[in-house]
Write a structure and sequence with these properties.
The chain has 153 residues and is α+β, with helices and mostly antiparallel strands. The chain has helices at 3-7, 14-25, 37-41, 48-53, 62-83, 126-146, 148-151, and strands spanning 87-93, 99-105, 108-115. A 3-stranded antiparallel sheet has the order 1-2-3.
Length: 153
């Protein structure tokens, strides 16, 4: 992340660093060793044309499911860093790519998202992915701030 990070400041953000950690954590064969950050996170970025090429009806493969889990795990880690309480992501998906993701802090649900068409899970750019994560993170932290007693249980 040296020369590339100097070119793109988004690569130095906490979210992108955590996404890279999450992706490396699921890489049990060391495939990502030596890869630049852009290449590791490339599967998260698809143009509208690329998404249109993916059939409407389709079952997500294991790699796609792992990427969705990494995205929400990264958000949970950032919630933990901010509020100093354990955040637990829970993902429930059907084989068709529909389901729900929850992130809880204590007894408090801080993120509740319905997922559809998971086989098309991607963003227009790394910047858009970070913006979406920041939005989810700020809402979650606001909820923790509003109900700290429940979050502490």
């Amino acid at each position: 992340m040296t020369a590339t990070a100097e070119l793109d400041p988004i690569l130095t953000t906490d979210f992108v660093k955590e996404m890279v950690k999450q992706m490396r954590a699921i890489d049990s064969y060391g495939t990502y060793d030596g890869w630049p950050v852009e290449k590791i996170l490339a599967p998260y970025v698809k143009t509208k044309e690329q998404r249109r090429e993916i059939p409407v009806i389709g079952d997500p493969d294991e790699e796609t499911l792992a990427r969705v889990k990494c995205f929400y795990n990264a958000i949970a880690v950032l919630i933990e860093k901010e509020c100093k309480l354990m955040a637990v992501p829970m993902l429930n998906l059907t084989h068709e790519g529909f389901g729900r993701v929850l992130i809880t802090v204590g007894k408090l649900v801080v993120l509740d998202r319905t997922l559809r068409d998971v086989h098309r899970f991607s963003f227009d750019s790394l910047s858009k992915m970070k913006d979406e994560a920041d939005k989810l993170l700020s809402v979650a932290l606001e909820i923790v701030g509003k109900y700290p007693d429940v979050a502490g249980l």
